[in-house]
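Researcher: Next entry in the queue.
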Amino acid sequence: MASLCARGLHGLPEMRAGDDLAALILSALDGEALRDGQLVAIAQKAVSKAEGAVVALADVRASARAIELAAAAPEGQEKDPRAVQVVLDESVEVLRAERGVLICRTRHGFVCANA
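Model: Structure for this entry, 115 residues:
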């Protein structure tokens, strides 16, 4: 019978641009070796921060398309048009836009919600 066990790593700092994410993860393992069959899952947010892919919304100017898409979000799920613009900037294609969610294809070829 197969089993699945997940656990978080403690002691990881807040990621910053230029951080060696792999080295930080290995350090947080505190000498514990990874075994065959083990997987390491890393949140995209940590990867983005280490890559320096962080944007200050104050520096973003929303396009007409971003304003239109933000306005189409359902009541109670309003979107900041500048945040929508960042999604558009990170996307090569918007595949679907409904109920406040943008399904996009990234420049890496990934299809995901809000790029």
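Model: The first helix runs from residue 21 to 28.
Researcher: Noted, moving on.
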